[in-house]
Amino acid sequence: MTKAESKYFNTARKMDEAFLALIEKKDFEYITVKEICEKAGVNRSTFYLHYETIGDLLSECVEQMNQQFLTYFKETSLEFQQRIRTASLEQLFLITPEQLIPYLTYISDNRTVFKVVLAKPEVMQADRAYATLYRDILDPILKRYEIPAGEREYVLSFYIDGMMGIVKRWLQSDCKDSIDDIARIMMVVVRR
């Protein structure tokens, strides 16, 4: 990476961080380019070199979070999807410690952002991430369990809402309980 590229990405990172700090305090629709630039320490023209709209900045933040999230896992999503198709039913679980520990670690490391995600899921495009998770991971598992197609969304809503309730409570306490303890609790309440 050249010095110019490095400066470009560093400036984009500053604007991402400024945006995330602002969205913690105000609704998305009330955040201005001026505020982002002031908080990031960049000129307004610099913002427009990187983005056309604040929505573009939001999309980049969400994409960056998704990419960073994947780095927490040892197994790639393709390897995991393959294992879903080939594992015996006795070895197939909706959640495992191998999935939970990286997930909870990522949440703990990014707790400020996740508080915003839980408070404002529509702004942070949580529905897109959930749709991918459902399509690639959860639906194939439930299909293998022979859960009828019309019931799968209800079953998953039950599990995901419960899991997110645990995560929300954990975030409210600023992740004071250990990741291992939260993973253990989730494993107890989520049965195959």
Brief description of this entry?
With 192 residues, the protein is mostly helical.
Layout of strands and helices, then pairs:
Layout: H1 3-25, H2 33-40, H3 44-50, H4 54-70, H5 77-86, H6 97-109, H7 111-119, H8 126-144, H9 149-172, H10 179-189
Helix pairs in contact: 1-2, 1-4, 1-7, 5-8, 6-10, 7-9, 8-9
Give a structural overview.
The protein is built from 10 helices and no strands. It is mainly α. Helix 1 (3-25) packs across helix 7 (111-119) and helix 5 runs parallel beside helix 8 (126-144). The chain is elongated.
Question: Could you tell me the number of beta strands?
Answer: 0
Strand content: under 5%
C-alpha geometry: elongated
The total of helices stands at 10
Helix/sheet category: mainly alpha
Helical content band: over 70%
The arrangement of helices and strands along the chain is HHHHHHHHHH
Distance between the termini: 47 Å
Cα-atom radius of gyration = 19 Å
Mean pLDDT level: 85
Which spans have pLDDT < 50 for at least 5 consecutive residues? none
- Largest sheet data: none
List keywords for this structure.
192 residues, mainly alpha
